Amino acid sequence: KYLNYEHKDLKLEYIESIIYYFYLNLLKNKADINSQIKFIFNNYQYLDSWVVVDTTYQQLINITFDEIKMLLNSDFEFVKRYGIVAMLPLIKDYNNLNMIFSLLKNSKFYYVNMATGWLISYGFIYYFNETYQYCLNCNLDINILKIAIQKGIDSFRVSNENKIKLKELRCKIKHKIVC
User: Fold this and answer.
1) Number of other residues whose CB lies within 10 A of the CB of residue 61
2) What gap in Å lies between CA 28 and CA 109, rounded to an integer?
3) Cβ pair 151, 117 in contact under 8 A
4) How far is it, in rounded angstroms, from Cα 173 to Cα 171?
5) CA atoms within 13 A on the CB side of 112
6) What is the DSSP letter of 46?
7) How is 130-143 classified by DSSP, letter by letter?
8) How far, in whole angstroms, is CA 166 from its chain's centroid?
9) What would you measure as the largest C-alpha separation in the chain, in angstroms?
């Protein structure tokens, strides 16, 4: 379990070492997104926690939707999570909303669904009305939507007026499931 990236004694059995390993390698390849994606796929076996992904995804600064789709098509939970969280900075751009919404799917993986809820909650921050309508009409699992709504309600970046609307949305979604 020893890897040779500048540190011969780096054991990848502790979460801190794995974070360090991913951070350094993604940083080293910051200018080449293809090398970063290749690194993630070649080292997926060390991804067994959301912490690694959420600590290092910011290094994927040149990521495009093509690379995001590659990550999302993976069979591995935390590789998929990279695909979701890599869209967090992209959701700030209105022109990305439709593409982002089109990529969101239900997953059998808990941590992918949690990240999807997190991403949608960012939509509530930047483009409330569009994200609200998306949630009202999408086919995502109710648990993903509940996560997104709760994160939106808990956010200090969502207005009190919109938090009231989110509580109403939660009721509408529950009613829609019952019907």
Assistant:
1) 13
2) 29
3) yes
4) 5
5) 23
6) G
7) HHHHHHHH----HH
8) 21
9) 60
Fill in the DSSP letter of residue 156.
T
Structure tokens at 149: 């709504």
Helix (H/G/I), strand (E/B), else coil: 61: coil
> What does the CA dihedral 5, 7, 13, 18 come to, rounded to 10 degrees?
-60
pTM to 2 decimals? 0.91
pLDDT in tens, 93-149: 999 999 999 999 999 999 999 999 999 999 999 999 999 999 999 999 999 999 999
Give phi and psi for 11, each to the nearest 5. -95, 130
Q: Under the phi-then-psi rule, with left for phi > 0, alpha for psi from -120 to 50, and beta for the rest, what region is 6?
A: left
Could you give the percent of the chain with pLDDT greater than 90? Answer: 88
For 167, the token pair is: 């509580």
